[in-house]
Write a structure and sequence with these properties.
The complex is a heterodimer of chains A (296) and B (363). Chain A is mostly helical and 296 residues long. Chain A has helices at residues 2-35, 52-59, 61-94, 99-111, 114-125, 134-141, 154-182, 186-194, 199-227, 231-237, 241-244, 249-258, 265-293; strands at residues 36-37, 48-49. In chain A, helix 3 (61-94) packs across helix 12 (249-258) and helix 5 runs parallel beside helix 10 (231-237). Chain B is elongated, with a radius of gyration of 24 Å. Classes of the chains: A mainly alpha (296), B alpha+beta (363).
C-alpha cells in the first residue's frame, strides 16, 4: 500500500514539476509582485507591502483607456460574432450544393496568420501618401468623405478594431455551430413538421435550445478571449498602442513589462490581477445565466 | 378515416453513380379500412418506413396517390393531413417537460383552430390520461423510462386528434417485458380512440398479436394482405411463409411425382392434381405428429422440453436450414435415445411452393 502511494507520486512527478514551475510559481509570483511597493528590478529590492500598485494603475489614464477599449471590444464583438456565426451556420446547414466550399471559405481566417490579416486590413483601411485605402475609395465613390481609419478619430479606429476582431474569431464559432446544428437529430424536425410548426417556432423552440450548450460555451470563451485581446491591436495599430489610444489591458501589462516606458513588474502584475478579477466575475455570471437557461 | 394507397411508388436515386434507382415502394395498392389497426411488416430495408413517410407526407411519392377518405392528400403538406406520427426514438423534445411536449402540437394551431391556454392544458391532460402518464406531467423526458417516453410520444401524437395515427417501429426500443405490455396498450388506445392506425414493424410476432390486418412487404413489393391468422395459415409464397411464425417454418427441397410429395426418397404426403415438378416443401413446426409408422423421418439432434410443449430439434439432408424444429405436445413420447424419429404430417400445415418462382402451389 505504502509502496503504491510512492509509485503514484513518482508517476505524477513530471506533471507536477512542470505545472509547478510554469503555472503555480508564476501565479504566486504575480501576487507577490502586485503587493510589493517600489520594487526595483535591477536590485530586486522593494520598500514595503500594500495596495499602492493597484491605486497607481487604477489612476493611470493609459490603463483607464485600456479598460474602456477592452470593454467596448468585448461588448461589441462577442454578441456580434456569435450572432453572425449563428446566422452563417444556419445558412450553411440549409444549403446542399457548394456547402463544403463555403465551409472552407468561412474557415480560412482561422488558419491565416494574424499579422497577415492585419496587413490586409491596413490595405483596406489605411491612408497613405499614395492611396486612401480601398474602403475610403468606396466611400468617396458614393459621395462620402474619406476617413482615416488607422490614425483618425477614435470611433473610426474602434470600428476597424471590432470589425477585425469579429472577422478573426468568427470561423471557430461557425465551425462549432455548424457541427452543433448538424448533430441535432433529424427526427425532431420531422416531428415538428408533422405538427405544422412554423419556421421561427422551430428555430426558437427546438433548434436554439438544442444547441444552447454550444452557444454558451462560445459566449464564455468569447468573453475570455476578447478580454485578453492584444495581438490583433498590434497587427493593425502597431506596437505603440498608448499613442494610438487603442491599448487593451493585456497590452498595458505588456507595456509595463517590456514597453519603452516599461520595467515595472509590480504595476504589470497589479493590472494583470485586475484583469483576472474582471474575467472571473464575468465568467461566473455567464455560468450562472447558462445554468438557468441551458437545458439537459 | 379510410386510407387508400393507389399505385404508390417511391424511387430514390442510387448513391452509387450510374446504378439504377432504388425503388423503395413499388406500385402499392391497398385500402386500409376505417378504424382498424394495420401492421406493416417486413425485414429491414423493405420500404415499410418509406411507405409510412409517404402516408404522413414527409416524403412525396414518385407516382401514385394517397387518399384519406374521399380526399386526395398526395399534394398536401404533412401538417395539413391530420396525421399523428410516433417515431422509433420517440423524438421527444428533451428540454421540454411532458406537459410542454404534449402541448407542442396544439400551440402550433393558427387562426380559427387556435385554442385557449385552458383548452390546451385540458386536452394535454386528457391525452396523458389516455396513455396513463398523468402523474408525470412535469418531468423531463430524460427522467423517464423508455416505456413512459413511448407513452408521452403517443400522447403527443394523439393530442391533436389525428385522422390517422402512424407508429414507426414503436416497440423496438423497449425491453422484452415492456414490449408485451406496450403492445397491449397500443391495442387498447387504438380501440378506445377508434383512430385508423398504421404501424411498422419487422417483428412478425408483434404485428400478428395486435393487428386487425397485416401487410407483408419485401423489397418494396407488397406480398400479402390479410388477417394475421389467415396470412399465417395461407401464405401466398415462400417468403411470407418463412417470414411469419416463430419458430420459423421448416423448408425442404422436394419433388412432386405422380401426385405424391417426395422429400428425399420418402413420399410424405399425397398431393392430388399437382403436376410433376421440383418444389419447396414448407412444414410448420406444429405440423408434425410423432408416429412410429409415419412417412417422414428426421435425424434427431436433441429434445428441448419447454413445459407445455416439446421441441424436437433434428436435421434432414434436404432441409434448407441447418436444423429442423418440430413442436409437439409434451404428452407424446419421443425417445431421446433414438437416432431417427418418424412423423406423419398435418396436411393443413404443409405448403408447396414452386422451386423457380417460389409461388404457392395449392392442392
Amino acid at each position: 500500500m505504502k509502496n503504491n502511494k510512492l509509485k503514484a507520486w513518482l508517476y505524477l512527478l513530471p506533471a507536477i514539476a512542470f505545472l509547478g514551475i510554469f503555472m503555480v510559481y508564476p501565479l504566486v509570483d504575480v501576487f507577490v509582485y502586485a503587493f510589493q511597493e517600489g520594487f526595483n528590478f535591477a536590485s530586486q529590492t522593494y520598500k514595503g507591502v500594500g495596495w499602492h500598485n493597484f491605486s497607481y494603475v487604477l489612476r493611470d489614464p493609459y490603463f483607464l483607456q485600456a479598460i474602456k477599449n477592452t470593454f467596448i471590444i468585448v461588448i461589441i464583438t462577442v454578441p456580434a460574432s456569435t450572432g453572425l456565426a449563428l446566422l452563417i451556420s444556419l445558412g450553411l446547414n440549409s444549403i446542399k450544393p457548394l456547402k463544403n466550399l463555403f465551409q472552407t471559405v468561412y474557415f480560412l481566417p482561422y488558419v491565416t496568420n494574424t499579422l497577415a490579416v492585419g496587413l490586409v486590413f491596413m490595405i483596406l483601411f489605411k491612408k497613405t501618401a499614395y492611396t486612401d485605402g480601398l474602403v475610403n475609395l468606396i466611400i468617396s465613390w458614393f459621395g462620402g468623405e474619406g476617413i482615416d481609419f488607422i490614425d483618425g478619430p477614435y470611433w473610426a479606429k474602434m470600428f476597424v478594431m471590432c470589425f477585425y476582431t469579429v472577422w478573426v474569431v468568427m470561423p471557430f464559432k461557425i465551425l462549432i455551430l455548424t457541427s452543433a446544428l448538424a448533430s441535432v437529430n433529424e427526427d425532431y424536425y420531422k416531428a415538428a413538421k408533422i405538427d405544422g410548426t412554423s419556421k421561427s417556432r422551430i428555430f426558437f423552440r427546438i433548434t436554439l435550445p438544442m444547441i444552447s450548450p454550444m452557444i454558451f460555451y462560445l459566449v464564455i470563451t468569447g468573453f475570455i478571449g476578447a478580454f485578453k485581446a492584444y495581438s490583433d491591436e498590434v497587427a493593425i495599430f502597431g506596437t505603440d498602442l498608448n499613442v494610438a489610444g487603442m491599448n487593451t489591458i493585456v497590452g498595458y501589462v505588456y507595456d509595463m513589462l517590456y514597453g519603452d516606458s516599461g520595467g515595472y513588474p509590480s504595476y504589470a502584475s497589479a493590472a494583470a490581477l485586475i484583469l483576472f478579477v474582471i474575467v472571473l466575475t464575468i465568467t461566473v455570471i455567464n455560468l450562472m445565466v447558462s445554468r438557468k437557461n441551458v437545458h439537459y | 378515416m379510410k386510407v387508400v394507397l393507389d399505385h404508390l411508388t417511391k424511387r430514390f436515386p442510387n448513391r452509387a453513380k450510374g446504378e439504377p434507382d432504388v425503388i423503395a415502394v413499388n406500385d402499392f395498392t391497398f385500402e386500409i379500412p376505417d378504424g382498424k389497426l394495420i401492421g406493416l411488416l417486413g425485414p429491414s430495408g423493405c420500404g415499410k418506413s418509406t411507405c409510412l413517410n409517404l402516408i404522413s407526407g414527409l416524403e412525396k411519392p414518385t407516382s401514385g396517390k394517397v387518399w384519406f377518405g374521399d380526399t386526395d392528400v398526395t399534394g398536401l403538406e404533412p401538417e395539413n393531413r391530420g396525421v399523428g406520427l410516433v417515431f422509433q426514438n420517440y423524438a421527444l423534445y428533451p428540454h421540454l417537460t411532458v406537459r410542454q411536449n404534449i402541448m407542442f402540437p396544439l400551440q402550433n394551431l393558427k387562426g380559427a383552430d387556435k385554442l385557449s391556454k385552458e383548452e390546451m392544458l385540458s386536452r394535454a391532460e386528457e391525452a396523458a390520461r389516455m396513455v396513463q402518464i398523468e402523474g408525470l406531467m412535469d418531468r423531463k423526458p430524460s427522467q423517464m423510462s423508455g416505456g413512459q417516453q413511448q407513452r408521452v410520444a403517443i400522447a403527443r401524437a394523439l393530442v391533436k386528434m389525428p385522422r390517422v395515427l402512424l407508429l414507426d417501429e414503436p416497440l423496438s426500443n423497449l425491453d422484452a417485458r415492456l414490449r408485451l405490455q406496450t403492445r397491449e396498450e397500443i391495442r387498447r388506445i387504438q380501440r378506445e380512440t377508434g383512430i385508423t392506425t398504421i404501424f411498422v414493424t419487422h417483428d412478425q410476432e408483434e404485428a400478428m398479436s395486435i393487428s386487425d390486418q397485416i401487410v407483408v412487404m419485401k423489397l418494396g413489393v407488397l406480398q400479402q394482405i390479410g388477417q394475421p391468422q389467415e396470412v399465417y395459415n395461407d401464405p401466398i409464397n415462400l417468403f411470407v411463409a418463412q417470414f411469419l411464425g416463430t419458430p420459423a417454418i421448416n423448408t425442404f427441397s422436394g419433388e412432386v411425382k405422380g401426385g405424391q410429395v417426395f422429400i428425399g426418397d420418402e413420399a410424405v404426403l399425397p398431393a392430388p392434381g399437382v403436376p410433376d415438378q421440383k418444389v419447396f416443401v414448407g412444414i410448420r413446426p406444429e405440423g408434425f405428429i410423432p408416429d412410429e409408422n409415419g412417412a417422414f423421418s428426421l435425424d434427431l439432434t436433441r429434445i428441448e422440453v419447454m413445459g407445455r410443449d416439446i421441441s424436437v430439434v433434428a436435421t434432414h439432408p434436404q432441409a434448407q436450414s441447418p436444423s429442423v424444429r418440430a413442436i409437439i405436445s409434451s404428452e407424446s413420447e419421443v425417445g431421446a435415445a433414438s437416432k431417427k424419429v418418424r412423423f406423419s404430417l398435418k396436411p393443413k400445415k404443409v405448403f408447396l411452393f414452386a422451386a423457380e418462382s417460389e409461388e404457392r402451389i395449392r392442392f
